[in-house]
Amino acid sequence: MFDTYASRPALSFEQITVSTAVKTLTAASYRIGTVGQYPDGGYPLPQCASEAYITLEGASGTNDMRVTFDGTDPTDTLGHIIKGGATLIVKGYANIVKMKMIRDLTTDVVINVTYYK
After folding, report:
1. What is the pTM of this model?
2. What sign does the CA torsion over 8, 9, 11, 15 have?
3. What CATH code is carried by the domain that includes residue 74?
4. What percent of the chain has pLDDT over 90?
């Protein structure tokens, strides 16, 4: 069952197609705003996601992908396999930033990602 995290507002949403080239999540989607100086000398902090809710479109055995969370490039034989139709919850800003993906089989994978503060 999908938990909408009612107490935590969504930060943003994106859809990514994962193919034969290694992909990452989009920084502009999980980190909103920049650090800059206000006229009064204060510094606004960007809003950063602490969790990503990811769903894979398609069917298991057809639309699978591999992921890593330490900056290593995944391959069709290296990384955690996530089956088509699955849900993946990535916790922690560092894991979101370092997550890399590649399709596992011969069909591209479409993922839907909602980021939460």
Report:
1. 0.85
2. positive
3. 2.60.120
4. 75
